Amino acid sequence: MTEKLTYPDVVQMAVPFFIALILAEFMWIAWRGRGGRYETRDALTSLLMGAGNVAIGIALGFVTWRFFMWLWHLTPLDLGHSWWIVALCFVLDDLRYYWVHRFGHRIRWVWASHVNHHSSQHYNLTTALRQTWTGTFTFMMIVRAPLILLGFHPAMVLFCGGMNLIYQFWIHTEAIGKLPRWIEAVMNTPSHHRAHHGRNPRYLDCNYAGVFIIWDRMFGTFVPEMEEDRVDYGLVHNLGTFNPLRVAFHEWIGLFRDVIRPGLSLRQRLGYAFGPPGYSHDGSRDTSDRIKAQHLARHPEQAGTPGFDEMRPPAG
Amino acid sequence: MPLTVLVALVIGGVGGIALLLHLSGRSRRCVLTPETAEAAWLRQFPGDRVAEATVSKDGHAALILTERGLGLLWAFGADTVARRLENFDLIDKGDRLRVVFRDFTAPAVTLALDAFERRHWLNRMQDP
């Protein structure tokens, strides 16, 4: 069994390129007068979230690593580290990313960590760096367990995860329109990911892909970016703070306040923790399904269009 | 990459980008009109009907009257944030009015209002 396998920390190595590309995107927007928007405090918050994410990765990375090495010592399988095994690992890890990301939007416990990535009302390359500080506490590293038990070395799995993250950096831009059809068919692109960041009812809970958009097409969550429904970035209820601490922890605080409310049944408490974002025991809040239904009640002509495929406006 | 190099890169990169954005005018707050204030409110609360939008003289905030009561919309960088005026405290600071929400996601906003505006807004917000 391969005991020691090392790959470079590609995310750390990419930091200078991230900075250079942000500068390039900003210059492009300033020069052309289109292709996106930058705002000082919004960008600063995003960059500080990114820096915090790297710092927490250095501080808490050992938790994930030890868990993965424990799994590695459990499994009798070792697929080695030939190039095609790395390629296979990359594809399967992207499938893993799809599901973790989907859980991140459909389970409040995971959304509490992921929400900060969607908390900017802007969409530019700094938004890509608005990353979570609390990912470790979602325990979503468990979703990677099958890969390691199948015989992919933990170092390879983390390397592929890093490459996946780097791929996703460049798609956080309005400076690139739609790409050739074959690319849009297979790959996650700026257009697909813009739709994912939309707070428009149509775009809620769509396009979870990391690298390959085929997962969304396979699992029925793909919604194309539509010219007639320009993407409005941010959260359904946008934040009124640029404070990175509030951005990082606001949903966790909301979640725990809801869970410990007096007078709730155990099922309701679990609903607040693990139900979809917007769950409430008394129907006083709106989940994405309800937001879509309310939107269709106001715009019944959009029923059956992408994002509302199987939905019909409420009768009456 | 050595940690010291990484830290220097991050500090230099973040500081440099923030400075560049500020110096190129990207710190300007959005300026509202009654029409854009109404549209911005409906962006946050699409089911509402806006009866009246009162924009502050500096254009950075608006009181919004809907059938569900009074709300506050304010410039948040180049964008806006809106909250219903339900759980909040008011602190009159003479030349400014501070609205403190019991909301972790939007803790407070300071409104720059002249003396006449401040009295008018105070009255409306205290007795919606």
Question: Describe it for me?
Answer:
The complex is a heterodimer of chains A (316) and B (128). Chain A has 316 residues and is an all-alpha fold. Chain A has a domain at 10-178. Helices cover 53% and strands 0% of the residues of chain A. In chain A, helix 1 runs parallel beside helix 7, helix 4 (108-114) runs antiparallel to helix 11 (244-259) and helix 11 packs antiparallel against helix 12. Chain B is of the alpha+beta class. Chain B has helices at 3-23, 34-44, 115-126, and strands at 50-55, 61-66, 69-76, 79-84, 88-92, 96-101, 108-112. Chain B has a four-stranded antiparallel sheet with strand order 1-2-3-4, with helices on both faces. In chain B, strands 5-6-7 form a three-stranded antiparallel sheet, covered by helices on one side. In chain B, a hairpin with a 6-residue loop joins strand 6 and strand 7 (108-112).
Give short descriptive properties of this protein:
A: 316 residues, mainly alpha, 13 helices, B: 128 residues, alpha+beta, PH-domain like, 3-stranded antiparallel β-sheet, 7 strands, elongated
Q: What is the assembly state of the chains in this entry? A: heterodimer
Average predicted local confidence, pLDDT of chain A: 95
Content of β-strand of chain B: 25-35%
Order of helices and strands of chain B: HHEEEEEEEH
Q: Write down the domain tally of chain B.
A: 2
Distance between the termini of chain A: 65 Å
Low-confidence stretches of chain A: none
Structural class of chain B: alpha+beta
Number of DSSP-assigned strands of chain A: 0
Q: How far apart, in Å, are the first and last alpha carbons of chain B?
A: 58 Å
Radius of gyration of chain B equals: 18 Å
Q: What percent of the residues of chain B sit in helical stretches (DSSP H or I)?
A: 25-40%
Largest sheet composition of chain B: 4 strands, antiparallel
Helix content of chain A: 40-55%
Which structural class fits the helix and strand makeup of chain A? mainly alpha
Number of H- or I-type helical stretches of chain A: 13
The profile of the biggest β sheet of chain A is: none
